[in-house]
Design goal:
By secondary structure, this protein is of the alpha+beta class. Among the domains are: about 45 residues; about 170 residues, no CATH class; about 110 residues. It is built from 16 helices and 18 strands. The strands form 7 sheets. A 4-stranded antiparallel sheet has the order 15-16-17-18. It starts with 15 loop residues before the first strand and ends with a helix. The protein binds S-adenosylmethionine. S-adenosylmethionine (SAM) binds next to strand 4, helix 7 and strand 11. S-adenosylmethionine binds next to strand 4, helix 7 and strand 11.
Amino acid sequence: MSPPTACAFCQSHATQLCAGCRSVVYCSREHQKEHWKRGHKRECKCFELSSNETLGRHLRATRDIKMGEQIMREAPLVVGPKVASVPLCLGCHKNLLPPAKPAQNYYKCSACTWPLCSAECEQSPYHLAECRLMAGSNFECKINYKAAEQEHKESAYCVIMLLRCVQLKLESPAAFARLYELEDHLKERLETPLYQVLRANLITFIKTVLGLNNCSELEILRIAAILDTNAFELRQLGGCVKVRGLYPGAAMFAHDCVPNMRHRFDDDMNIVFLAKRPIAKGEVLSISYTQPLRSTIQRRVHLKQVKCFDCACARCEDPTELGTFAGAHVCGKCKVGKIISMDPLQLAANWKCEVCNLKRSAKEFLTQDAKIEQELESLDKTTPLSLEDFLYRHRVELHETNTHILQAKYALTQLYGHATGFAMDELSEKSLKRKVELCEELLEISNLFDGGWSIFRGNLLIELQETVLAQALSLENASECEAKLKQAAELLQEISNIMNNEPEMQQLLAERRQMLDAAMARYAVGAE
Ligand SMILES: C[S@@+](CC[C@H](N)C(=O)[O-])C[C@H]1O[C@@H](n2cnc3c(N)ncnc32)[C@H](O)[C@@H]1O
């Protein structure tokens, strides 16, 4: 469809297309600004709300969207600790630092006794929300500093986000109404052991201990269920802040195991969505609520548990998982074929070798698979040795793109170059080569599961680029060195494209550019 030719503000002939919605044009910057103020701000979107039986409400592209384009930016309606959290400050949300002397405790709020990092954080608007509701009660918060348990997650934090929502109801009914119209899956959730515990503990705490009567029991449980269905995990400052945020607009994005968008958070906790690849007009805009390297069984079980739905996306319904056979094992009988599910959308379906037709019951297959998963989880992840040993021990039973193998390989890409004794300048030629192989293999997989400008791909490229540069610097042959440096430069260019909108990555990128420039200069000097 060709764009309009009349200025949306004054109707005179115009050619400057609005970069946001691309559905209106302007004759001048001034008229664009005026039109924005007079209402285009609300209308300027490249998506619309839609609904169907499978996805419920979801958002669809109203025009073609380019790779890397920003699709939405939204401020949080509510932010707060996760259901279980390491001790964190309720004012600034940073993980609490150990007190100056080990015998001391965390600083405690003078009004409600919850730990904070300092007196200053008592006045944070975030904290005032729950502080007002708790200050009058006799409740004393029992979260104390314990040197040996700094990583321990406290379940007491589950009440904070709920209290912030209750406060929202009291202070801003219109904002609360936006929260309250989100999906909850409360009926399914109430049958789970987690909600039975919540029902017993949370309701007693809010109603009896705090004596709050502004919300009914059902309303409190509904809010908890809305948060579990819709909140995003929000990470900032390199992991020093790990909380949840509720964004009612962003909550409308559907899940897909091969999503077309990625998201990040800015310094003000706004959530920002980008197109990871070109998106065609009419396509459902999607993010992933799960992990790309997990198999169909793992992803679907996780999605059912946390988001209460049965995913039936193209990757889930394909027994070969886009040709990777990520959920399959090598057949123990013919040793050639892969054992795949006869119906990946049914957990109880039998499994069968695609070559010799050997059949295995779901129970038999899944028990064996769970054992391998547990084994991988229990490994020492501080050194590459235990993971390499895992790969060696399972080399016959599991093929190169099996989920457990892929997860172990991904962990290895993060350990070679960083683990104690395996820093980049300590790696042998063989280990450098190994890291390159692992990154390249996973990059191929990322093209299938999380392609385009994904953070997963960006992170792998960062590991690969550093390794290729280290390889270049260890080479004596000038033309081989030059080829490697060129490869490192190309990789850095791709990383810059992908990470262009990630403020936290800019320093690393600048350092990488400097290192590469220095290496190139040194090589050029040597070549003269
Ligand atoms: C964050 S909400 C998304 C908005 C929701 N569809 C609504 O109508 O409010 C997440 C819920 O949307 C539904 N959903 C999202 N993606 C889905 C998918 N790929 N297949 C089925 N249901 C999906 C599930 O019910 C899920 O619990």
